[in-house]
Design brief:
heterodimer; A: alpha+beta; 6-stranded mixed β-sheet; 8 helices; 12 strands; B: Rossmann fold; 3-stranded antiparallel β-sheet; 9% strand
């Protein structure tokens, strides 16, 4: 029988979220007491109120396949330059998802990355105004269906052109699918992966194993990074929506 | 050639190799009286149809069946049945039905599931009695005005089902279908710089543009020219429709007509407020003093030549009646064409680089200051 680690506690989730806010925005951390749930919520509401002021990425989606999208999200984030990465990190890797067919848009728009099969495309992080004509042309991506069931899948992050600076690592990506739409899962997984890449947790050549579970409980390994959200039907409680485990060497 | 049945024979050039023209005006939801704006569109289309017919093989496609699938129609039917149960609408007036429609538009929308039985029945040709009643009343107005009836009460299903239409669009690289993730299906002409346009909502309801595509995609390849007539407000949708149909072969002509303001305001019929200004009352008022032909010609003079394609002038009953009087004088003076020019040649003058006759130019010509009396073959063929 596989051993499992204890599910993430409320304290653990609050702490992880506080670390995330402190890293991205020390000013917000100074304004709010991030050791309390109320302080955390106040900081999050400040972030939400800032709207379109910071750096933002637009992702154009024609169709959705979780594993392929995980891979391309990492490839895109690995290609973001250090300056753009810092600005994007400050805006909490803010991303808008748009419904669109990248193949129809390539002549008019510059994308930083386009999936090989043309199913998705990413703009470089930058001021929201830079994506305004794209956003006028397209609509917000709407995917209210639940995340379709699928077996665990190994995603290999391409080695890219530069040699990895460290041995290839393997992590498990867990996505909580209970009561979660595809639109919501996209947001959660996007933040987990983008921030993990920008923080150096995921590098070219790494392996990610994508697991869909109803909730992030009963996991065999500890989480190194986690996307914290609130329980839909229990607003005072935090929930782990997606997370990456501690690294293990690639077998 | 009159209205086309999809199952029936397709138009072909006749022995003289006449060009084939499809007139496809936007339809009016059969749920209310015909307002001055509606009358303008109907009269405009009718003159175009009858004036082009001597010059080309013309199909006038106007199918209520196609557009019953839109939410404003299905929702109205469901709203009535939910609130009133089985009701006999045969003695309802257009105004009364229009009031019910205004109440429907002001009410909360029913969930998509509630409309499903109506959608399925409408696909098979079922029509709610409230709309049958309206269409019967409209048929009388058509007859009074001498309008060609393109099959108001006939079952005229579109040539493609919704899925088939979306598949055709996908084949043309013009569809973004995200129904698999519970999202909408869009018309995707972004490569031309046109914004993504939703065709089917996330909960499965097609809009009128989706209905138009179901109808026009299979028809368009059989024609040399397709003329789309619609309200100015729908310009961006029709620009998209034009793009789609153009790749199927025909030259597409868009004719946008401005609505008729009432006391300076353009109001949608969904808000009601017709206050006695609709086809029934206007026809009755004109016919109280003038004979049928004068009313028919006068209405065309007013709604086409006087109001023009724009929307600058508010509706004026006094000007309409003046036009009817003018029409009566023109009819009294009418005779053979003084130059003996063939009717076809006279009609052909009112085209530019297109196949259809321009109703505004043709009708305005009758009112020209130095015009001699109108030719009665023209009046009979086009205006009466």
């Amino acid at each position: 029988m596989t051993t499992t680690v204890a599910p993430p506690t409320q304290d653990f989730l609050r702490e992880r979220e506080a670390v995330r806010i402190r890293a991205a925005r020390p000013d917000l951390a100074a304004r709010h007491d991030l050791s309390s749930l109320d302080g955390l919520m106040a900081a999050r509401s400040d972030i939400a109120a800032e709207g379109d002021t910071g750096s933002v990425v637009a992702v154009v989606l024609r169709s959705f396949d979780l594993a392929a999208w995980v891979r391309d999200t990492c490839v895109f984030a690995l290609g973001v330059g250090p300056e753009q990465a810092a600005d994007w990190r400050t805006s909490f890797t803010r991303t808008v998802f748009l419904a669109g067919n990248p193949e129809q848009l390539l002549e008019r728009f510059d994308f930083a990355h386009v999936a090989d099969d043309g199913s998705a495309a990413w703009t470089a992080p930058g001021p929201a105004a830079r994506t305004s004509s794209l956003r006028r042309l397209l609509k917000l991506y709407t995917a209210p269906a639940g995340v379709p069931a699928r077996p665990d899948v190994l995603v290999e992050i391409p080695r890219a052109h530069r040699p990895p600076e460290r041995p290839r690592a393997r992590r498990d990506l867990y996505v909580a699918t209970a009561d979660c739409t595809i639109s919501e899962a996209l947001v959660h997984v996007n933040h987990v992966l983008a921030e993990a890449v920008l923080d150096g947790l995921v590098a070219p050549g790494d392996h990610l194993v994508v697991h869909q579970v109803p909730r992030l409980v009963g996991l065999p390994a500890r989480l190194a990074t986690v996307r914290v959200t609130t329980e839909k039907h229990f607003p005072g409680r935090l929930k782990a929506a997606a997370g990456l485990t501690e690294e293990a060497p690639v077998a | 050639m009159t209205t086309l049945s999809v199952a029936g024979p397709r138009p072909r050039p006749d022995a003289a190799g006449r060009p084939r023209v499809l007139l496809a005006p936007v339809t009016i939801t059969p749920s209310k009286p015909l307002t001055p704006s509606h009358l303008k569109g109907l009269l405009w289309t009718d003159v175009m149809y009858r004036a082009t017919r001597p010059l080309a093989d013309v199909t006038y496609r106007y199918s209520h069946t196609t557009y019953h699938r839109t939410e404003q129609t299905l929702g109205f039917w469901e709203f009535l049945d939910r609130g009133r149960g089985a009701t006999d609408y045969d003695d309802f007036t257009e105004e009364r039905i229009g009031e019910l429609y205004v109440a429907f538009r002001a009410a909360e929308r029913a969930p998509a599931k509630a409309l499903l039985p109506y959608a399925e029945a409408a696909e098979r040709g079922w029509v709610h009695p409230v709309s049958t009643r309206v269409l019967r009343l409209w048929s009388r107005h058509y007859a009074a005005l001498g309008l060609h009836d393109p099959g108001l009460l006939r079952h005229q299903p579109p040539g493609l089902g919704l899925d088939a239409a979306l598949e055709r669009l996908t084949g043309l690289g013009m569809c973004l279908d995200q129904r698999e993730v519970g999202g909408p299906a869009y018309l995707d002409l972004t490569r031309f710089g046109l914004p993504l346009r939703r065709l089917v909502t996330a909960d499965g309801r097609p809009n009128y543009l989706a209905c138009a595509l179901r109808e026009l995609i299979p028809l368009a390849p059989d024609f040399d020219e397709v003329v789309l007539l619609y309200d100015h407000e729908l310009d961006s949708d029709y620009a998209q429709l034009e793009r789609v149909l153009t790749v199927l072969g025909p030259r597409v002509r868009r004719v946008a007509l401005g609505r008729v303001p009432i006391e300076g305001r353009i109001r949608s019929a969904r808000h009601g407020g017709w206050r006695g200004l609709h086809a029934g009352t206007l026809i009755d008022a004109a016919r109280a003093e003038h004979h049928e032909d004068a009313v028919r010609l006068g209405m065309r003079l007013y709604f086409i030549a006087v109001l023009g394609p724009g929307r600058q002038q508010s509706f004026r009953s006094d000007l309409l009646l003046q036009c009817v009087r003018r029409a009566a004088r023109l009819l009294d003076a009418a005779g053979a064409d003084p130059d003996g020019t063939a009717l076809q040649d006279r009609l052909a003058q009112h085209r530019k680089d297109h196949l259809h006759v321009n109703p505004y130019r043709l009708t305005s010509h009758l009112l020209g200051k130095r015009r001699t009396a109108p030719a009665d073959d023209l009046l009979r063929t086009v205006f009466l």
